[in-house]
Amino acid sequence: xxxxxxxxxxxxxxxxxxxxxxxxxxxxxxxxxxxxxxxxxxxxxxxxxxxxxxxxxxxxxxxxxxxxxxxxxxxxxxxxxxxxxxxxxxxxxxxxxxxxxxxxxxxxx
Length: 109
Hints:
The chain is mainly α. Helix content is about 85%, strand content about 0%. The longest helix is centred in the middle third of the chain and has 38 residues, at about 40-75.
């Protein structure tokens, strides 16, 4: 893998995550400073926690589907990068997202 490409991508992702964390912290601090009702603060915190759980569920399902795709590629002993191999990985990713969508709908209803 070309490490010259990985360093700027990692740097950009780190900067974006840091900005998001700072903005979230400032919003929460302003909510506490302005004496917002406890119900609103509680609902915001519960919503954040639910989003985090759903994000973990989504990544887990998608990564599991990708792992199954890689197992299929290994089982058929495909060693070259062909459109068929890429299609299997993209299909596994799409299938993982669809499974997450179905599980997410059941959890919210």
